[in-house]
Amino acid sequence: MATGVFALAGFTQAETAKPAEWGTFRGPNHDGTGPAPKSIHDWKQVKLSSLWKHETPKGFSSFSVAGGKVYTIVTRESEGNNNETLVCLSIVDGKEIWAKPLTIMAKYDGGGDSGTPDNKGGDGPRSTPTVDDGKVYAIDANLGVFCFDAATGKEIWNHSVLKEHGGVQIKWHNAASPVIDGDILMMCGGGTGQALLGFDKKTGAVKWKGQDDKMTHATPILADILGVHQAIFFTQKGLVGLTPATGKVLWRADFPYKVSTAASPVVWQDIVYCSAGYGVGAGAFKLSKDGSGLKAAPIWRRENECFNHWSTPVVKDGYLYGMFSFKEYGVGPVACVDIRTGKDMWKQPGFGPGQVILADKTVVAISDKGEIVAIETNPEKYVELKREKVLDGKVWSYPVLAYDHLFARSTTEGGCWELK
Fold it and tell me: Residue 34 pairs with which residues in a beta bridge?
């Protein structure tokens, strides 16, 4: 009964209410925020009713949900090889509609099937597909970028950044997801003079390329700061803001790199926050007008603390909420940090490097052991509204709110839950 109603309501929304979808990495606003489901008036009273589950073997690709379908990238064996495979599932019952192999991955540099004893994440795809205008886009671990028809899986175009643009691979391989603005798909990974790339999303033609920045695992974001629309990349040089349509650099801010940078930047008003593990820590920059351009000035820095290993926080009213820890699997805290000063407001242990999104005034977190936790956006104290175990396996992927339902996946299973 619930499934039938969901099917009718879901496909209607797909045509008339785009904000109800979650077709890109970290949501429709590229910043982990989205509207709260209409069915929820009080998170304390919410019950999660499982509608379906589907195997999602190995990997940390999140779900993208749009057009009445669910997309993610999994590991699948074919002819004796481990393939990163883009799969399309039915939003109604989770059944597979189509699947397309992307690249063969015998082993990820620096990874391991079993992980460290306290980790156990294993190997697998780390990039999340993007759904846009009836197409689905994906970047694999070997910097192949693909465009498929979202309904049928028919390939429209593909490029190998490694072969065609002098790509430079990094340890653990690519984890960044495609970001689309207008007709431009942006990514990092090319070689000298073409590190940052903008492709025509319809044809795959290169619209612009430039810079010498080496890539990281961090996905770029889109933001409007001081009236200037921009994409912000977090590279091994630091932060770089550019014009999405042309690739013109608007500003830069130096920031250290060690081993891996994986969390995306976070923007609040004219402040850009960033953080990395491996002894780096966090910092924030304030942007200001500089003639016809912009400039960035550091406002605070916390070296070797305030870590976002690969879990990007969300921001509400000037306060960051998210997983702040480094290799504290299963026990690392969710915390609140003032983005203006870097001051810790509170910490609550027991989450590990899971993920958070923001649904209006509520943080929806998923711990690395598969618990959905609703948390009040309260900088004064930790207020838990709801906690429920939903998944087995290791969860380093983002939860998704779309079509008034919750979607989430782990290294073993993914599913859809009705919010009652």
Answer: 359
d(CA 140, CA 125): 7
- Tell how far CA 118 is from the center of its chain: 24
Tally the residues of the chain. 420
Strands 206-210 and 221-225: unpaired
CA distance 47 to 310: 29
Residue 50, strand partner residues: 417
CATH number at residue 49: 2.140.10.10
Instruction: Please state the rounded mean pLDDT for residues 342-368.
Output: 97
Instruction: Identify the CA nearest to 136 among candidates 127, 145, 147, 144.
Output: 147
Domain count of the fold of the chain = 1
Q: Do residues 332 and 348 touch, judged by C-beta distance below 8 A?
A: no
What sign has the CA pseudo-torsion 151, 153, 159, 161? positive
DSSP H or E stretch at residue 4: helix 2-16
* pLDDT grade for 292, boundaries at 50, 70 and 90: confident
pLDDT in tens, 92-102: 999 999 999 99
Query: What number of H helices and E strands is found in the chain?
Result: 2, 33
Number of Cβ within a 10 Å radius of residue 20: 23
Helix H or strand E segment including 267:
strand 266-268
Nearest to 33 by CA among 401, 410, 403: 401
Structural domain span for residue 234: 2-419
Six token digits for residue 99:
């699947």
Residues 6+ apart with CB under 8 A from 202: 183
Q: How confident is the model at residue 414 (pLDDT cuts 50, 70, 90)?
A: very high
CA distance 306 to 377: 19
Phi, psi of 11, deg, nearest 5: -70, -30
